[in-house]
Every structure is written in C-alpha cells, then in structure tokens.
Amino acid sequence: MKSLKVLLLGACVALCACSSPTSTVQTNDQGTQWQWENGTIVVETPQRPADRKSVIGLALPKMEVVRVGFVGLGMRGPGAVERFTHIPGTQIVALCDYEQGRAEACQKYLKQASLPKAAVYSGEKGYEELCKRDDIDLVYIATDWLHHFPVAMCAMENGKNVAIEVPSAMNLKECWALVDMSEKTRKHCMILENCCYDWFEMNTLNMAQQGVFGEVIRAQGAYIHNLSPFWNHYWKNGEGDKLGWRLDYNMKHRGDVYATHGLGPVAQALDIHRGDRMQTLVAMDTKSVVGKALVEARTDSACNGFRNGDHTTTLIRTANGKVIEIQHNVMTPQPYNRLYQLTGSKGFANKYPVEGYALDADQLTASGVQPKVDDLNSHGFLPEAEMEALVAKYQHPILKKYGEMAKEVGGHGGMDFIMDSRLVYCLQNGLPLDMDVYDLAEWCCLAELGELSMDNNCAPVAFPDFTRGEWNVVKGYKHAYAAPEEEAAAMEKAKAFTAKLKEQGAKEWAQAEKK
C-alpha cells in the first residue's frame, strides 16, 4: 500500500509539472521575453519613460496644406499617389522607391492632375534623405512589410507624422518602439487600415454605436484571400530571390501575419482601448500544404520548414467579456472573405458571404424603421426593403461626405480614398486621427502573440497593454469632426491652394514639353 501511495504521489507531481510550466523568464526568437503565470503566457511590458505621456486623443495644430512624401511605390503606393491628387489642400512633395524607375513613373499622376513634379529618391536608404526634408508634414509608407518599421521610425525621428500600410509592425518589439517614438515626438503614427472605411463596416459601426444591435458581445473578422494570382508580382530582391518578399515572410514566420483587415473594423465596434481592451488570445493553425508546395515549385527543392499554416484561427477575449474570432488564409482556393460579423444582444450583422442584418420587429421599430412585413423575426436576414431603410437611416456621416467621390476616384471600391480623405481632413482641422499608434500596435501584435500561443501547444497568451493603463480613459470609439464653419473655412483654403498649385504645375509641365 505504501509503495502504491508513493507511485500515485510521483504521478501527481509529474502531472503537475506538465500542466504548470515553470515561471522562468524565456526569450523567443524575436527577442521577446515571456513567462508562465497561472497557465497563461505573459509577455514583458516596458514601462513608459518618465518624460513622456500618452498620445490618446493627440491633436496637432491645423495644417492649411498637408505636404506629403510617399515611400514605397510598387503595388499599393502608386494608387495612393493618384488618390492624393484628388484631395484639396495637399502637395505631393517627394516620391521614393528602392527602384528609381518606379518612383519616376508616379510623376505621370502629377502631370495628369496639372500638379508640379515631385522630388525623386531611390536606393536602399533613399527614404532617409526624404525624411530629412523640412517641407514634408506626412510620410506615407507603402513599402514591403519589412521596411514599414524603419521608414516610420526615421520619419518620426525627423519630426514627420507617419501613415503606414498594413501590417504596420511585424512584432512586439516594433509595436513598442512605434508607441514610444510617437509618444516621444508627439507625432501621429496611423495605421492605414482601409477596411475600416468600407460601406458596410461604416454603416454597421454607426448602427452599433446607436444601439441597434443592443450590446455587441461577439465579433468575427478575417482575411481570406487566395493569393495565387499575385505571388509572382511581389517584389524580389535580385535574381537570387525566388520567392518574393511576401511568400518568404510566410515561410519564415508563424501566426496571423495580416490580421488588421479583419480585426480593425470589429475593434472599433467593440471600443477597443476606448473602454475595453483585448486581454487574452488562443491561436491555432493547420499544417502548411499549399505554402510548402509554393516554395518547392519555385526553388525546385524540398521545403521542410514552412512556418505558417495555410489557415490560422485566433480567439480573443476582452476585459469586458466579449469574444473576437479572427482568421487568416491566403493559400487555399476559396472566395474572398473578411467575415465581418457582429453578434449583439438585440441584433446581428453579417457581411460575408451574404450582407444582411437580423432584427425582430420590435427592435427594428425601436431603431426607427417600421417593418413592412408581418411577423418579422431575427431567424433570418431583413427583407430587402427593411434593410435598405435601415441602411439609409444609419448611413455614416463620413460616407455622406466622401462616398460619391470615392466611387469615382476608386481604390478598393473607394474605401482607400475615404481613408486618405479622412486623414487629410483631421490634419487640416487639427483633430485626432481615426486610428492611432495604440490601434496600430494592438491590431498588429496578433502575429507574434499567436506564434507564442501555437509554439506552446496553443496556450493562452495575455495581451500587453500598449496604452499602459489608459485603455479606459476614453469612453466609446468616435470619429472627430470640426465645427461646420471651421470645416468650411479649412476646405476653402485647401481649394484655393490647390487651384494655385495647379496653375503652377500646368506652366511647369508646358515648359518641360517645349524643351
């Protein structure tokens, strides 16, 4: 009997050792320190330097003219340059790309708009010279992922505001560095998450803010996009690069490396770091089948170390007891899907694969729309007439302002133009931006936190608090607006400036053609 007790005690000790990992501080391959606390992985949170303070609600003096330098003119950058030629009160000062020809090619957009030529920078460090200019207010970054961070840091160090394409930071170290630099320089560091400006997302956000769905308790988002037509178009660094930067990144890194399209819109609907915060995640992925095969086909050799699974799923629980599910898949054949789904205590919204809202008759009536059918319930989506009436009633003010022109200018159906226009609007009117550096950090950190989870048997991982305790200071996500008279005055100045700039540009291009 005694020996049996000893065996049982030994087994219990062994079991406890397996289920309660040591609390010794560990360091992953990206340099992040972490440890176990009550079965959860907790990462190190650096303290804010004593001479700095939060940039929540940061507003800078009004800019009559927003002078812009663009860095990264491959796949997304040229479209951004073209869109800015349609925004009054902006001046495209400089164009930069690793390859000079791609920067020079964007002059055509300025010529088409009768705007003066921009200065051109190129080469591996061309962006450094651009950032040193004293006539740039905003550096717009659309490079490959690995260059988002160094360009943004250089720009802020040189006193520039930055807007960074997604994902804006690739790991926790970069997230914290951007937060610290924005707080140090008091400059805007905005994530260019265009999906926050799509029509369904904006109207649904307005509905959620007006209580149409009751309390939103669960949300879904995703980036499911088969990239098979695009893999060969991603920039390659010389003849020895067989993969291109994006496939190479997925081969070397695990986790949801492109989370923000799905996460950004639902984070706004859930008031993340404006009354709630993401607290814990658990992530898991499938094995790599398609990704591995892509590498083998391009390198003609076996690939035994493709890190990222073909499909990644991340579950997040917030401090207020909400749940977010985010998915990522750029490998397998299936229809494009960002999911975007809100589950509320009184209603439901869904974008993919079918756009619709589910409300019963009482809730629809309480939301200001009288049902035209009998026995309306939430077991199915609203009929077309009721849905159109609901959307018309809750059309977002930003869509009312920019929607029609956005459809003409384009950029992912117009949402890119709305995003850029709102960025310029806030700078011209001295308002806080729609998305700040804390949004950037929280939406981008899923990649490394998910990797930590999956590399440790899909264990729960605690989110660091990038606001350092201030996530509950602002109550509810809101877009900032200027008073109507101030907005009108700013736009009048913007249009007057652009008219003069176009006169100057037309003369310069005419003279150049004569030569």
Verbal overview:
This is Gfo/Idh/MocA family oxidoreductase. Residues 1-25 form the signal peptide. The protein has 515 residues and is of the alpha/beta class. The chain has two domains: 66-193 and 482-498, Rossmann fold (3-Layer(aba) Sandwich); 195-398 and 437-462, Dihydrodipicolinate Reductase, domain 2. It is 39% helix and 16% strand. The protein has helices at residues 2-19, 77-84, 100-105, 107-112, 126-132, 145-157, 172-185, 199-209, 245-252, 260-269, 290-299, 361-366, 384-393, 397-409, 415-428, 437-444, 446-455, 484-514; strands spanning 26-27, 33-37, 40-43, 66-71, 90-97, 119-122, 138-141, 161-164, 189-191, 216-224, 278-285, 312-318, 323-329, 341-344, 348-350, 356-358, 461-462. Helix 7 links the parallel strand 8 (161-164) and strand 9 (189-191). Helix 5 (126-132) packs parallel to helix 6 (145-157) and helix 8 runs parallel beside helix 10. It is globular. The termini are far apart. The model is unreliable at 1-20 (pLDDT under 50).
Query: Unreliable stretches, pLDDT < 50, 5 or more residues?
Result: 1-20
Mean pLDDT reading: 95
What gap, in angstroms, lies between the N and C termini? 104 Å
The fold-level CATH name of the largest domain is: Dihydrodipicolinate Reductase, domain 2
Task: Output the structural class.
Answer: alpha/beta
What is the C-alpha radius of gyration, as a whole number of Å? 25 Å
In CATH, the homologous superfamily of the largest domain goes by the name: Dihydrodipicolinate Reductase, domain 2
Tally of strands: 17
The fraction of residues in strands falls at 15-25%
Total count of helical runs of at least 4 residues? 18
Write the CATH architecture name of the largest domain: 2-Layer Sandwich
Strand order of the largest sheet: 1-2-3-17-11-12-13-10-14-15-16
> Regarding CATH, which class of the largest domain?
Alpha Beta
Fraction of helical residues: 25-40%
* Shape, principal axes of CA atoms: globular
How would a crystallographer describe the biggest sheet?
11 strands, mixed
- How many distinct folded domains? 2
